[in-house]
Amino acid sequence: MEDRLQWIRLQPKQWVDWAPVNGGLQTHAAVRARYPKANCLALETSELRLQKVKVALTNPWWKVWQRQAVSVLSLEKGSPKQEFADLVWANMALHTAVAPQALLRTWHSLLATDGFLMFSSLGPDTLRELHPIYQQMGWGDPSHAFTDMHDWGDMLVQAGFAEPVMDMERITLTYATPADLLKDLRLLGRNLHHQRHQNLRGRGWKQALENALLALAKPDKQGRLVLTVEVIYGHALKPLPKVRLAEQSSVTLAQMKSMLGRSSGNTRLE
């Protein structure tokens, strides 16, 4: 996703990194290296994650003389300023949202006119090898349902974005043992299905899962266990606001400034 930024003409002065702990601190560093002069607001979803971000991304007190390029804020403490960012960067966040359309509207509200959103999420082919095994064993689904990229494109337009560009790739991971596969699976996240097993499972179930993987999974030609991860990438612009004509119409001050004189920057793909 970071490599796609080379096609964007606009050089952001302000950008938002949404949930950088889950999105990856190394990824954050790559975006900051691409825009070294830009200020960043790192928004985290909890105070616990916020402390980790503060340690990793902000200058220590003894370097107070250095420019602080990153500020941090917990969403538990309140909402950030509206319509200020040129870029909202959201890596691997959308598929974990309980209300994804509301999250898209939140990202839209953070962007100034002509700002752009870059996001990634897991797609519906993710973990496709596990679903038939779980069904055959009567364990329900190994994950909640992931949204197709075409549906994300529709939701972007409904949220007020323009010119959405969607792309995807499938990554094939292979493992020598079921234990290796499960170790990686824990790193990918957790099962957010609303009908998932509510209690902790014991060692017996874990052993049954490893046995099922050995017996029911279809290995590759080298005899290794296979796991598919579909990654969806999205890019969209925040266009000039459209005001419905009526006897009385209202716009925000930021929208009025945009309507009176648009920025010369252009985020469209070259």
Which CATH architecture is right? Answer: 3-Layer(aba) Sandwich
Unreliable segments (pLDDT under 50, ≥5 consecutive)?
263-270
CATH superfamily: Vaccinia Virus protein VP39
Q: How many discrete domains?
A: 1
Number of strands: 7
Secondary structure category: alpha/beta
How many DSSP H or I helices?
9
First CA to last CA: what distance? 16 Å
| Global mean pLDDT | 87
Rounded to an integer in angstroms, the radius of gyration calculated over CA atoms is 21 Å
- Kindly report the CATH topology: Rossmann fold
The major beta sheet can be summarized as:
7 strands, mixed
Beta-strand proportion: 15-25%
The best one-word shape is globular
Q: Residue share in helices? A: 25-40%
Order of helices and strands: EHHEHEEHEHHEHHEH
Strand order of the largest sheet: 3-2-1-4-5-7-6
Overall CATH class: Alpha Beta
In short:
The protein is built from 9 helices and 7 strands; from the N terminus they run βααβαββαβααβααβα. With about 270 residues, the chain is of the alpha/beta class. Strands 3-2-1-4-5-7-6 form a 7-stranded mixed beta sheet.
Task: Explain the overall architecture.
With 270 residues, the protein is an alpha/beta fold. It has a single domain, classed as Rossmann fold. 32% of the residues lie in helices and 23% in strands. It is built from 9 helices and 7 strands; from the N terminus they run E-H-H-E-H-E-E-H-E-H-H-E-H-H-E-H. It has helices spanning 20-23, 25-34, 47-57, 100-110, 130-137, 149-158, 178-188, 203-216, 253-260, and strands at residues 14-18, 39-44, 70-74, 85-91, 111-122, 162-175, 225-237. Strands 3-2-1-4-5-7-6 form a 7-stranded mixed beta sheet. Strand 4, helix 4 (100-110) and strand 5 (111-122) form a beta-alpha-beta unit. The longest helix has 14 residues, at 203-216. The protein is globular and about 60 Å long. The two termini are 16 Å apart. The relative contact order is 0.16.
